Amino acid sequence: MTRGTGGGKVRVKTARNRSAQSTRWLQRQLNDPYVKKAKAEGWRSRAAFKLIELDEKFGLLKRARAVVDLGIAPGGWAQVVRKQAPQAKVVGIDLLPVDPIEGVAIFEMDFLDPAADALLAEALGDAPDLVLSDMAANTVGHAQTDHLRTMGLVEAAAWFAIEHLKPDGAFVAKVFAGGTDQDLLAVLKRNFATVKHAKPPASRKGSSEWYVIAQGFKGRAEKPAAGGGG
After folding, report:
1. Where is the active site (predicted)?
2. Which residue is catalytic, options 9, 39, 57, 174?
3. 3-state secondary structure of 196
């Protein structure tokens, strides 16, 4: 149950079967101006504004012709690509089901599945000039574990970009507080002309999420063999 307050905010009462955490999340959603704006403008999620803001700052979509969206659900980023770069072919992948988006090929499967790379490449039909990743691992409540799980996805997305991008292409991925791990950051700097971190205004102030933006892909690199180490 919800009710208004004098300040125009919506206050959510704690229901019998709703946890206090769920109540706080619902109240935050109901009072989030980006959530309201997304609904009003027809975006599937408030995350659409993150890509819009990153595009305004880094010019990611102006020359995009082939785009891969990793972690596409619920589809807000793909919507932005279709609107800002209607000439671009777009493919996306996610473990979660995603309602169809006109002009977007969507695969419901694990990006880490060995078959995923070939399916995405075949569906796109050309090397991408932009790889987007808004993926994050499901949290388990242990900060270090959650960070490592998500950074594993970021690393997999980065190597997908390095193995498939056209020269001068770009890679964008969600990371968390502290930015990209140093080893991966070094790989990105070797393979891209510029590597920067940004927190778009649409990211909640209390959120630890940041984005790494790597532009000016230099060309192919060999992925190091698994195993070994010190």
Report:
1. 174 (proton acceptor)
2. 174
3. strand
